Structures are given as structure tokens and as C-alpha cells.
Amino acid sequence: MIKTLSSLHPWFITGFVDGEGSFMVSILKNPKVRSGWQIQSVFQIALHKKDIELLKLIQAYFEGIGKIAKHEKDSYSYRVHSLEEILDKLLPNFDKHPLVTQKLADYLLWREIILMMQRNEHLTDEGLQAIVNMRASLNLGVSDELKAAFPNIIPVSKPSVSDYKIQDPHWLVGFTSAEWCFMIRIKNSSTHRLGFQVLLKFSITQQSRYEQLLRSLVTYLNCGGITFHKENQVIEFVVTKFSDIIDKIIPFFVKYSILGVKSKDFADFYKVAEFMKNNAYLTVSGLDQIRKIKASVNKGRKYF
After folding, report:
1. So where are the chain's domains?
2. Which of 199, 214, 217, 256 is the most exposed place for a label (fewest CB within 10 A)?
3. What is the pLDDT of residues 121-142, one digit of tens each?
4. Yes or no: is domain 5-149 CATH 2.60.34.30?
């Protein structure tokens, strides 16, 4: 089913932004500005070109504000940098449907900078320094140029984010559309008649600071578990039990539709699950069909 403006849920937007959105502040030299520095706040979602239709859908949700443009070689971005549009459309949306992940801390700092700009505080020396201090705590911090220009930078403490409560199932489907992975694996097996075993895996991998959020998913979905990967300091929520995939994961995402290219991966994942449920994968023809489906999932899918 193709989503329209009227059917796109606000919590989907929040979940997707928790996965793929960025709240950015640029502080650039500009001799035409009294302070010598121009401040620009930007909201951005950058996706692979295969998901440009999803960017258009998100832009439509925000009533057409912002622009979609080429970002890098194979990606496009949706960007909103108009202060008026941010105040009118973005802040009310994210204040009413708040972010769940650590990205909420970035949003709150970004929001405070926006409000300071609305009050023209960025035009004063004190306000400019305060904004630089907040910028130092956003994303990757400040450049060497800014450090040299503002030697008294004192990064502010990020707002504390500890209550990772999922407010609505549409948040989870939005986050899934951004971050999750549906995997199909075929491995050698001496205990299966055809010599192969088909396995399904539904997972998400995040930085270890997201442990509390991922643990909350075990409770929310009533399945799955947590795995630590010490070699790269990440944590993974994963569901591999076939009965959980059939009885819990698939029904959830049938009811709450994934958007973007991951919807195609889910559809193929669903097909293979049905093959397995009906034991069709135990036949040569069934296994061949699963191989063909597997070849097109995730990175194997061709779009252009």
C-alpha cells in the first residue's frame, strides 16, 4: 500500500528521524553580519538515492517545506534551514511527538539555539558565545577555526536522556524503516535432507550507549535478545526464533507498514517465512525460489 500525506503517522516521522535525522548548526564567518559570524540551523535527512520517494513523502508530511537535493554520489538529502519554517512546522511536531533515542539531547540543544535566534540573541556577543558553547556539544563539536576564534568555549552539558519509552507502534515502524535489517541465510547442514538449512534473522545494531533502548524492545515486542559485539563496541537486538518471527514480528509489520526500500526487504522476508511455514523449503524447487529471493534482499536488490 502506498502511503499518502493523510496516512503518514507523526510517530513514524519521529521514529525515522531517531534513526536517520540530523539536527545541525553551522557557524560561519560573514563580514556582512555585525558580529562577523552567521549562524544557520539545519534539519536534515540524507538517504541513498533508492529512497528518494520516501524523502518526498516526508517533505509532503511537513507541507512541502525544505528542499530535496543531491547530497553525495549516491544519496539525496531533505533539508530545512528556514528559521520561520523550523519554528512553524518542525518544533511543534517534535515537541508533541518527542524523540526517543539519545538524539533527543541533540534536538533539545538545537531547539534552544533556534529559540535564541528567534529572540535575536545571536546578534549579541553574549548570545553568540552561548550558541558556540551549545554547538560544541552537538554532533562532532566545533572546528579548529571556531576554537581559535572563541578561545573561551565551555561546552554545555547535554540534556539527560534516560527514559527510552516507546510511545506508539508507529515510532517502531519508523525506526525500523530507517535502521533495521531483515536477513535470510542459507547454510550447509548435514541434518537437513537437501543439505541446507534456511534461517531468518530480524535485527538492529547500534552503539553500546543505546543498550537501554534495545533492551526495551525485548519487552515491547515480547521476543528477541541482546548480543554485545566487543570488537567494535556495538550492541545488537536480534530475533531468530522462527515461531517469534511468524507469530510476533511479521504480524506487527503487516499491521504497521514499513516504508521505503526496507518494505521490499520485509516483503521478501515474509515470502521466505511462508515457504518455511509450509515446508516448501524442503523441496529442491522451493529452496531454489528462496535462493532467488535471498539474492535480491538488502544490498543485492537492484533499483537503477
Report:
1. 5-149, 180-300
2. 199
3. 999 999 999 999 999 999 888 8
4. no
